[in-house]
Design brief:
Elements: H1 2-68, H2 74-80, H3 96-107
Keywords: Membrane, Transmembrane, Transmembrane helix
Length: about 110
């Protein structure tokens, strides 16, 4: 009878230790899974933050570029209104000899 009690006690302690080990293993695996999900969430948040930062940088550079550029550039001005034709050259002055000749003819 003593042997049966010892065997029963041994079986109980074995089942208890197995149960504890199984629950510990299960809790560790759940903890690991939770940690992995948390890490994934953190990575996703970091990626979203990076994307937001890039978008902000793009918008800032776009606004800076548009504010620094003149409202009407020369290229658009040229395409909208063709440049006016150059003024005609002034008539050449008469020759000195011709001028004197006309004076001489007036005198005569």
């Amino acid at each position: 009878e003593f042997l049966v009690l010892q065997l029963h006690s041994l079986s109980l302690s074995l089942s208890l230790s197995l149960s504890l080990s199984l629950s510990l293993s299960l809790s560790l695996s759940l903890l690991l899974l939770l940690l992995l999900l948390l890490l994934l969430l953190l990575l996703l948040l970091l990626l979203l933050l990076l994307l937001l930062l890039l978008l902000l940088l793009f918008l800032l550079s776009f606004l800076l570029f548009t504010s620094l550029s003149p409202p009407c550039s020369l290229l658009t001005l040229h395409s909208l209104h063709p440049p006016p034709p150059p003024p005609p050259p002034p008539p050449p002055p008469p020759f000195f000899f011709f001028h004197h000749f006309s004076l001489i003819s007036k005198i005569l």
